[in-house]
Design goal:
The protein is α+β, with helices and mostly antiparallel strands. 35% of the residues lie in helices and 19% in strands. It has three domains: 232 residues, no CATH class; 81 residues, no CATH class; 51 residues, no CATH class. A hairpin with a 3-residue loop joins strand 15 and strand 16.
């Protein structure tokens, strides 16, 4: 019998799990008044009689990835929308689509499983490397392997103490894929849960074109299930082994948070990082190499850059908590994580975003006019009016007056009535 542990996943920051496709500017248009992108249904648009006069121009311009609203009237486009999403100003690049099913958003179980696997390997290989010089030497050789050919060896080494012996002895089942079952999350409508974020590479010495990504918004709750078959556990109940996996994940990703984030600690629960922008600390052996003093041997070095949504918000952070009523599981700290109701209340996660914006503002040059628009975009994405007003005042106090008064979006700031 397989025992199932049901969990709630709440996004702490924007999450992008890519669908492997893009929405070119010829397939959406941006409305500056509503600050939304409207993705088009090309099938109905092409059959619109009024579109016939523009079809030849559309074919010509679409090949150059030109903005469709530059040559087709918006009155026609407005009749053929598939869905609309909040978006930052100046959206006119290809938008990397998020994975969906039937137009609804989800996080695939494979993405969650990969994140958990990184944590389990860090924990188990770290323990072995501290206790066994031979294992440490194997890890040193693996760190020097630029081709990654020794990764399967590390998988077996890391999981042989964690998985039951029959699973290790059978190559076809000696995989995390077979050992841990992770479902996809439930499906949610795109409206209210998805937005478009401008993602910039912060810290790069070279000028880089920002990316536009469909991201699951902060504060979205999704449910999924973890399960271990009884034969996968060495003398333990499956639920206890799942707790071990979650505890390892929380310990690992709190270390990653410490290495990459400047804001306050995340809330209690099991922390994970998923998808685009997770970075080398979360997706490589970098933390393990640091713990075992193997950094000088490792081909991967700490990244000098990071991808940030709207220039200030880290990507991919989520928090897991139990959602089955009455279920109690322990976090890495040994404390019970409070159970959530059968229908978790939506939380916005705005405080973390607000803290990030203020922290970034403090290190921005007061005369850097190019950053004003980015902070105004961040302000518009806040949900709480009180936090919008406080951030507006902070922007007003921080930037040079001449810099602000010359900015074309100064009216957006003034409507919050900041005081001198």
């Amino acid at each position: 019998m397989i025992e199932v542990v049901k969990l709630n996943l709440r996004t702490l920051s924007p999450v992008h799990i890519g669908a492997g496709s893009e929405i070119p500017p010829s397939e959406y248009w941006y409305d500056p008044k509503s600050r939304q992108v409207h993705c088009l249904n090309l099938e109905t648009l092409i059959h619109d009689p009024e579109f016939g006069d523009y079809l030849e121009k559309f074919v010509e311009e679409a090949a150059q990835a030109r903005q469709i609203d530059r040559f087709v009237p918006k009155e026609i486009l407005a009749r053929h929308g598939r869905y609309s999403l909040p978006a930052p100003s100046g959206a006119h690049y290809p938008i990397k689509a998020a994975v969906k099913s039937g137009g609804r958003i989800l996080i695939p179980g494979s993405s969650i499983k990969g994140s958990l696997l990184s944590a389990v390997l860090w924990q188990k290989l770290g323990e072995k490397g501290q206790q066994d010089d031979q294992v440490r030497e194997q890890l040193k050789v693996a760190c020097q392997d630029k081709q990654g050919k020794r990764y399967n060896d590390l998988l077996g080494l890391g999981l042989q103490e964690f998985c039951a012996k029959p699973f290790v002895d059978r190559p076809q089942e000696n995989r995390f894929l077979k050992w841990l079952n992770v479902s996809d999350t439930d499906l949610l409508p795109a409206k209210g849960n998805l937005r478009v974020a401008r993602v910039e590479v912060v810290g790069s010495k070279k000028s880089q074109i920002p990316m536009l990504l469909e991201v699951i918004r902060e504060g979205v709750n999704l449910r999924f299930e973890l399960a271990l078959p009884p034969g996968a556990c060495r003398g333990q109940q499956p639920a206890k082994k799942v707790q071990d996996v979650l505890a390892a994940a929380d310990a690992y990703y709190r270390r990653v948070w410490q290495a990459t984030e400047t804001s306050t600690s995340p809330p209690e629960g099991w922390l994970l990082r998923l998808g685009q922008g997770s970075g080398a600390w979360a997706t490589s052996l970098l933390l393990l190499a640091t713990d075992l003093d193997l950094r000088r041997d490792y081909v991967v070095q700490p990244p000098a850059t990071k991808k940030m949504a709207d220039g200030v918000i880290s990507l991919g952070w989520v928090l897991l908590t139990p959602w089955t009523p009455g279920q109690k599981l322990e976090s890495a700290s040994g404390q019970d994580v409070a159970t959530v109701s059968e229908t978790p209340q939506a939380t916005t996660g705005i405080s973390a975003k607000f803290t990030e914006l203020l922290a970034r503002l403090k290190v921005t040059k007061p005369t850097d006019a190019g950053q004003v628009g980015m902070f105004l975009d961040g302000l518009q994405n806040l949900a709480a009016e009180a936090e919008k007003a406080e951030l507006a005042q902070a922007i007003w106090d921080h930037f040079d007056r001449k810099t602000l008064k010359k900015h074309k979006r100064i009216d957006e700031l003034k409507k919050y009535q900041p005081t001198n």
